[in-house]
């Protein structure tokens, strides 16, 4: 259990909170142990009495002793509670306010924070009766003595009217004020209790309190003032002071006090600091004396006094200038301080540091306490001077702070120079909190109350005068490994040691006297260290035997407490709470004899009874009551045995009485034997395991062979481009078509146009069914078969040694034929071009020389005067004739500029002589042989296409005209790509049809996706197609996470541990399970994972692999290797396709077909009509509510004990009506309850709703991005979504809308963390509130694109995850309360997320870590993680070769890593 105390809620705070709820209490806790936290919790528990109109409700008063504390304590309450807080201090003529003015303030505010005197004035005037106050909190209540305003307030409390008086709570770290000896302590405590009508209480568990209390290393640092050698200087100032003391026996005047204060002030600086710093102040003192001299009468006593002072100050100046030649003279006391600072700097690595990184926890954060204001000013000034001169002190950044009121002692010129306004105080404190200064010289003003950082060095330059000063100044040394040093003169060391011993004795006595003061005898034997022998406990308390006598398994009294803690370790926890059982001991005195289960109890004996409260995440929500016992120790162990028995009965412990692990809880694992076996295989379900799958084509294509002499169907390909002109009516257009014996699905004709690319030109290919039914005779059949073979084998050269043309055995039994289309008819008229097929099959050349030159244009030619075979591909090159020049012939000049003719060039180059010197010149370009047209070729053209753009000059005599026209050749080159896509679309159609048919006879009204969308979902990124599954996968993944969470949330009972929900959810949509489900449905056989290469991996229609050719050479044609992870990705993409087309209902139907759900969801039909907005389609319908309504069970709600308890729990929740008017208030209560809040025994914590809300929010944001930004690739979608739903974004949203003020928790660490985050993000939050207020033109700088470098600043804020959890749990609560209506949830939360969506969509955020790694030196950066003692995490970044070493700290490693990376980037700029 050691090691958990730092994150657990502190039980002693809850103990004191309970006490304060029950009776008036003085909370006695040391600095750093959370007194303020207890007071905030108390206000929250009683807020139901103040949230409402002042006529029917009361108000809370928070009293403080100083003006600066008003703002500080008000901000603490305001930042953590949803109450309206007012601040009142002695300005704005508040003392003259009338009763009506005060009544208006009490109506306006729920909590009023003020200085005590203001409240005294209110009570004296009778403005507000005490029965309208529910609680009065006295901060630093030890001041309530004599006539202090605290004591005056309590004089209005009439004990006889206790039922009409407010609850009183005092907060203090030291019960006594002023000097006090040990024998006086109890009397002082009793007096304070009597004044405040309270009982002083600290926790019974002092061991635990001490773990959190301040315990720095204390040292007495001695110095020798006899070595100062300042006697001559001191005599110059003491002589007039002694004279004035004699003079005071006569009459005094204002001038007398003025002169005396100045001399005493100067002498104090001289003795404390040294003559050098006093010399620097003398000029100002003399000037001030001269000014005052002008206002007195000449020859008067006042003038003589001023002259006396001037004379001695001038004498001091001369003496100093005479004796001090160079350097600075300081006292031995100051030397002692400087040595402390130098030693601290050396120990922590700051002294003389030349740039190396010093961990943040080791950097100086210190306070030096002095007695006089003049000393504070002078000491701060000398330290600033020395830090600029001494290398060892260069790390010091110093300032001072003093009170802002009049000095209680003297008020000399130097002291007046040190005076501070409240604003100046706040400025200095702000700089100290932000570490812009690291050393603060202070009077007693920061000993108590004011909020300062945890210091690692506190020095008492002036010794503490009493135990209160000692305890409170020591309490400022709250950091880990801090030190508390006290400077003492050697001659006073012995006497001060005695005083220090007395103060420490008083401290111990205070602990003992307040310990269990309300029940003096309880807890004398509470410490586990003082337990009697374990055997004696077991002898008194019988064990719990779950299996009866004679078995070894048992829960003994000695072991049960440890077992309880072991069980609690299994319960849900977070960074701010570690669940522990809470033990409460009560004492009762019997008035009669009775027999207990352990023996007879005599009349008048004392009995102890223990009550155990388990964490709210435990099913045992009722308090567990033990039997009355003879001691508190026995009562605690007896109750623990009873708790073990109840846990066993609740099936929280197994048969061995051990906590049941998540894996062993019923319902955690899916009942799928194959899945459980697969999980045992290494790398199963990951990207690392690849398996081979056979590629399956569309079933239709293997059954559609045209029938000779039978009826066949003719389909025509129509190719469109953006620059095509409409053909004239009757004009003939040539294209290609396909003949099948089967009718193609209608969707092929209506919804699935195919996009192809010719170079950079975009083409759209559509399919049209021609009305004519085709009957083929034997001649036509043979011609068509021959043409198919020539087309793919000889013209397109899609021939491989591994396959052959046998249509009756092919898996693609359709035929490709040329078609002549006659334009201008509707429907389209087209005929099979048998003449063209005859020419191609029999190599009949349609054009021969001599003929008209224009007949060559658009022809396809080959050359015969040279070897023109492509060396890589083995076939003759083809050329496309673009122009025929009748005015040019072989006699024309060759365009090389050398004056030769074409005839001469061909003769010299190829030894060829033209026979016809009058033939025209043909201009040709290379006819590309590229067959891959699925993607554009924007980036860079292939060599082949570069060549195609170049023109060449040929003559008819050397050209062999190809029987296929050029335009038909170009269209033929599109065929492999088009047919490959057609096959994919038909395969997708069969999948869609299969899903539909599985619901035949039930609900088939859901809308299916188009075939093209399913093809996209089946296409991996590795296929390098114009589309891939990545965007759809993100959409499907978000839906799968959401639907799985919703189904489990509905299926499993409300008492099911969140860990079980999480594990079950992870297994349900794990990659390994999705891969298995896909494999069972043969989805991998339909996937496309490789780049389309017509000549290397595609089998043309009518062809088949040769018999016996199933070796590795053929695997590229009929199989593919797929990683398990990619198969799972494909499933998610298919889900995305279904929900993109048909919304939630379609997605659920697809999952049913996939057999994803173990139990089929309840009925529920899809909406027949869907909205037009794509995003609303994704949110549309009541499918979730209908499918999962039968087993909805969210709240484990129980009825409150009474109406008062219900008021407490629901106080302040009505504010959420502005967000959503909840029908079920209990679900709202659950959404705001942190696991640490033990008072809510009704609904449980928000963790279950947070899990649900996280999935819902992820889906809502993903679908919004998917629809709003269709051009975003998967990387941008992921970046934008991550930024919007990041922990910091959600936490900021919670602050903007004050959700954090309604969080119900009992975690001190969370209390502090929220406060820190509020302070760090104040400017961001304020500007966001302006945005939400309706002025969208005003956007905070963190949300302004023009502010360079600020994009990651939001994410750099160290946000407590609980705030993000609350937003997610509220999303889950609205979802459940709206009957699972996604559209409603989005309408509620979209306005809240709008500023973040707009910001991040304008400029996608990039993590500093990523930006660093993408720089030139990114590869040399190393990140190392270090765990700090205070649970923060430190990240150290080193850049090799650059000498850069940077560190940063945060509450988690991710935030620390970002901060460190940002520091490195700033150094590189």
Describe how the helices and strands are arranged.
Layout: H1 11-22, E1 25-28, H2 35-45, E2 59-64, H3 67-80, E3 85-88, H4 99-108, E4 111-115, H5 116-125, E5 133-139, H6 149-154, E6 167-172, H7 185-196, E7 199-201, H8 206-212, E8 217-223, H9 231-247, H10 254-272, H11 275-293, H12 301-323, H13 332-348, E9 366-369, H14 373-389, E10 398-401, H15 413-417, H16 422-433, E11 439-442, E12 457-460, H17 467-474, E13 483-489, H18 493-514, H19 534-540, H20 557-570, E14 582-589, E15 594-596, E16 599-601, E17 606-613, E18 624-625, H21 632-649, H22 673-678, E19 690-694, E20 711-721, E21 732-740, H23 747-750, E22 754-758, E23 761-775, H24 778-795, E24 803-805, E25 815-822, E26 829-832, H25 834-842, E27 860-863, E28 878-885, H26 902-910, E29 921-927, H27 943-949, E30 951-954, E31 959-961, H28 966-972, H29 975-997, H30 1011-1017, H31 1030-1051, H32 1058-1068, H33 1071-1080, H34 1094-1097, E32 1103-1105, H35 1115-1118, E33 1119-1123, H36 1124-1153, H37 1174-1179, H38 1183-1188, H39 1203-1210, H40 1225-1231, H41 1247-1268, H42 1274-1284, H43 1287-1296, H44 1308-1320, H45 1322-1332, H46 1353-1356, H47 1361-1377, ...
Parallel strand pairs: 1-6, 1-7, 2-4, 2-5, 3-4, 5-6, 8-13, 9-11, 9-12, 10-11, 12-13
Antiparallel strand pairs: 14-17, 15-16, 17-18, 19-33, 20-21, 20-23, 21-25, 22-23, 24-32, 25-26, 27-28, 27-31, 28-29, 29-30, 34-35, 35-36
Helix pairs in contact: 1-2, 9-10, 9-12, 10-11, 10-12, 11-12, 20-21, 24-25, 29-30, 30-36, 31-32, 31-36, 31-41, 33-36, 40-47, 41-42, 41-47, 43-45, 43-47
């Amino acid at each position: 259990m050691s090691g958990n105390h730092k994150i657990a809620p502190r039980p002693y705070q809850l103990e004191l909170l309970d006490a304060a709820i029950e009776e008036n209490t003085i909370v006695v806790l040391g600095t750093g142990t959370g007194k303020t936290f207890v007071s905030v919790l108390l206000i929250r528990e009683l807020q139901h009495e103040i949230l409402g109109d002042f006529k029917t409700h009361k108000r809370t008063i928070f009293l403080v002793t100083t003006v600066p504390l008003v703002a500080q304590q008000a901000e603490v309450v305001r930042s953590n509670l949803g109450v309206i807080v007012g601040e009142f201090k002695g300005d704005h003529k508040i003392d003259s306010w009338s009763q009506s003015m005060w009544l208006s303030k009490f109506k306006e505010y729920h909590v009023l924070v003020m200085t005590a005197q203001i409240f005294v004035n209110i009570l004296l005037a009778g403005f507000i009766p005490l029965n309208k106050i529910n609680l009065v909190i006295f901060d630093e209540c030890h001041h309530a003595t004599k006539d202090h305003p605290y004591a005056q307030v309590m004089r209005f409390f009439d004990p006889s009217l206790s039922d009409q008086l407010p609850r009183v709570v005092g907060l203090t770290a030291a019960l006594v004020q002023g000097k006090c000896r040990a024998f006086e302590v109890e009397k002082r405590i009793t007096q304070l209790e009597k004044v405040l009508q309270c009982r002083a209480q600290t926790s019974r568990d002092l061991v635990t309190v001490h773990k959190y209390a301040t315990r720095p290393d204390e040292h007495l640092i001695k110095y020798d003032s006899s070595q100062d050698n300042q006697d001559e200087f001191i005599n110059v100032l003491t002589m007039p002071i002694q004279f004035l003391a004699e003079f005071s026996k006569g009459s005094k005047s204002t001038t007398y006090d003025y002169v005396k204060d100045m001399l005493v002030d100067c002498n104090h600086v001289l003795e404390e600091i040294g003559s050098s710093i006093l010399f620097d102040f003398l000029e100002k003192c003399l000037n001030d004396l001269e000014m005052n001299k002008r206002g007195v009468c000449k020859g008067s006593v006042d003038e003589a006094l001023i002259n006396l002072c001037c004379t001695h100050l001038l004498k001091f100046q001369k003496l100093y200038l005479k004796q001090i030649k160079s350097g600075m003279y300081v006292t031995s006391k100051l030397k002692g301080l400087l040595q402390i600072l130098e030693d601290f700097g050396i120990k922590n690595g700051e002294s003389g540091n030349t740039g190396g990184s010093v961990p943040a926890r080791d950097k100086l954060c210190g306070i030096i306490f002095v007695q006089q204001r003049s000393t504070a000013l002078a000491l701060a000034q000398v330290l600033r001077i020395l830090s600029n001169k001494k290398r060892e002190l260069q790390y010091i950044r110093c300032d001072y702070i003093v009170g802002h009121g009049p000095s209680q002692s003297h008020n000399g010129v130097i002291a007046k120079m040190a005076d501070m306004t409240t604003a100046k105080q706040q400025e200095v404190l702000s700089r100290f909190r932000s570490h812009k200064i690291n050393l603060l010289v202070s009077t007693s003003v920061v000993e108590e109350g004011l909020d300062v950082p945890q210091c690692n060095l506190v020095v008492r330059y002036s010794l503490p005068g009493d135990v209160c000063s000692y305890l409170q100044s020591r309490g400022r040394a709250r950091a880990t490994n801090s030190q508390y040093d006290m400077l003492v003169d050697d001659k006073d060391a012995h006497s001060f040691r005695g005083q220090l011993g007395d103060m420490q004795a008083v401290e111990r006595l205070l602990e003992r006297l307040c310990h269990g003061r309300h029940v003096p005898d309880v807890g004398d034997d509470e410490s586990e260290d003082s337990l009697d022998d374990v055997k004696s406990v077991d002898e008194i308390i019988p064990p719990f035997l779950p299996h009866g006598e004679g078995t070894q398994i048992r829960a003994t009294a000695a072991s049960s407490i440890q077992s309880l803690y072991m069980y609690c370790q299994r319960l849900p926890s977070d960074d701010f709470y570690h669940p522990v059982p809470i033990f409460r001991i009560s004492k009762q005195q019997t008035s009669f004899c009775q027999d207990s289960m352990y023996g007879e109890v005599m009349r008048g004996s004392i009995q102890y009874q223990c009550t155990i409260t388990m964490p709210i995440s435990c099913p045992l929500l009722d308090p567990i009551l033990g039997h009355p016992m003879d001691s508190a120790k026995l009562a605690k162990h007896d109750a623990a045995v009873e708790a073990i028995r109840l846990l066993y009965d609740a099936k929280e412990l197994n048969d061995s009485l051990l906590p049941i692990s998540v894996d062993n809880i019923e319902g955690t694992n899916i009942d799928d034997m194959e899945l459980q076996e697969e999980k045992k295989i290494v790398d199963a379900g990951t990207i690392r395991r690849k398996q081979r799958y056979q590629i399956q084509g569309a079933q239709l294509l293997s059954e559609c062979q045209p029938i000779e002499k039978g009826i066949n169907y003719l389909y025509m390909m129509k190719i469109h481009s953006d620059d095509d002109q409409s053909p004239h009516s009757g004009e003939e257009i040539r294209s290609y078509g396909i003949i099948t014996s089967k009718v193609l699905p209608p969707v092929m004709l209506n919804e699935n146009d195919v996009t192809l690319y010719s170079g950079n030109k975009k083409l759209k290919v559509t399919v049209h069914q021609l009305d004519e039914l085709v009957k083929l005779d034997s001649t036509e059949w043979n011609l068509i078969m021959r043409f198919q073979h020539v087309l793919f084998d000889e013209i397109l050269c899609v021939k491989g040694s591994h396959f052959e043309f046998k249509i009756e055995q092919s898996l693609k039994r359709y035929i490709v034929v040329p078609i002549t289309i006659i334009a201008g008819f509707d429907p389209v008229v087209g005929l099979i071009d048998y003449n063209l097929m005859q020419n191609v099959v029999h190599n009949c050349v349609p054009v021969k020389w001599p003929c008209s030159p224009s007949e060559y244009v658009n022809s396809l030619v080959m050359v015969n005067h040279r070897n023109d075979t492509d060396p890589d591909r083995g076939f003759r090159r083809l050329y496309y004739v673009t122009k025929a020049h009748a005015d040019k012939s072989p006699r024309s000049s060759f365009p090389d500029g050398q004056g030769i003719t074409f005839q001469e060039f061909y003769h010299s180059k190829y030894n060829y002589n033209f026979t016809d010197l009058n033939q025209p010149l043909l201009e040709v370009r290379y006819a590309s042989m590229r067959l891959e047209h699925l993607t554009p070729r924007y980036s860079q053209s292939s060599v082949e296409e570069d060549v195609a753009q170049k023109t060449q000059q040929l003559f008819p005599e050397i050209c062999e005209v190809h029987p296929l026209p050029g335009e038909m050749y170009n269209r033929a080159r599109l065929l492999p790509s088009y047919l490959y896509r057609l096959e994919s679309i038909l395969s997708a159609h069969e999948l869609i049809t299969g899903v539909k048919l599985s619901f035949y006879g039930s609900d088939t009204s859901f809308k299916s996706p188009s075939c093209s969308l399913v093809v996209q979902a089946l296409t991996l990124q590795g296929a390098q197609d114009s589309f891939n599954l990545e965007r759809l996968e993100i959409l499907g993944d978000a839906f799968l996470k959401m639907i799985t969470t919703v189904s489990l949330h509905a299926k499993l009972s409300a008492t099911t541990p969140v860990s079980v929900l999480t594990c079950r959810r992870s297994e349900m949509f794990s990659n390994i399970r999705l891969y298995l489900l896909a494999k069972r449905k043969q989805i991998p056989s339909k996937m496309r994972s490789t780049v389309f290469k017509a000549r290397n991996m595609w089998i043309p229609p009518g062809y088949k692999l040769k018999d016996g050719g199933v070796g590795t050479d053929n695997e590229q044609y009929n199989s593919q290797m797929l990683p398990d992870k990619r198969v799972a990705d494909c499933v998610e993409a298919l889900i995305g396709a279904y929900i993109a087309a048909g919304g939630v209902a379609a997605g659920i139907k697809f999952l049913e077909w996939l057999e994803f759900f173990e139990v089929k969801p309840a009925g529920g039909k899809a909406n027949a009509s869907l909205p037009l907005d794509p995003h609303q389609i994704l949110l549309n319908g009541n499918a979730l509510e209908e499918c999962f309504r039968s087993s909805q069970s969210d709240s484990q709600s129980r009825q409150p004990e009474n109406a008062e308890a219900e008021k407490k729990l629901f106080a302040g929740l009505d504010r959420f009506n502005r967000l959503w008017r909840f029908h079920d208030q209990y679900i709202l209560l659950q959404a705001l309850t942190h696991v640490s809040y033990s008072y809510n025994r009704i609904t449980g914590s928000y963790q279950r709703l947070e899990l649900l809300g996280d999935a819902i929010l992820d889906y809502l944001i993903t679908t919004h991005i998917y629809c709003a930004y269709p051009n975003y690739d998967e990387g941008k979608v992921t970046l934008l979504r991550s930024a919007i739903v990041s922990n910091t974004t959600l936490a900021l949203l919670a602050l903007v809308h004050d959700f954090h003020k309604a969080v119900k928790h009992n975690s001190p660490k969370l209390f502090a963390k929220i406060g820190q985050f509020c302070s760090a993000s104040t400017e961001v939050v304020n500007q966001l509130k302006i945005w939400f207020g309706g002025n969208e033109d005003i956007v905070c700088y963190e949300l302004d694109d023009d502010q360079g470098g600020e994009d990651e600043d939001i994410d750099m804020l160290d946000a407590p995850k609980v705030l993000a959890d609350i937003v997610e749990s509220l999303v889950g609560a609205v979802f459940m309360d709206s009957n699972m209506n996604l559209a409603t949830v989005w309408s509620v939360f979209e306005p809240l997320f709008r500023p973040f969506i707009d910001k991040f969509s304008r400029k996608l955020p990039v993590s500093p870590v990523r930006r660093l790694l993408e720089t030139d030196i990114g590869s040399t950066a190393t990140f190392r993680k270090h765990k700090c003692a205070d649970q923060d995490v430190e990240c150290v970044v080193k850049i090799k070769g650059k000498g850069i070493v940077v560190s940063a700290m945060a509450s988690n490693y991710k935030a620390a890593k970002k901060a460190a990376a940002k520091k490195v980037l700033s150094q590189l700029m």
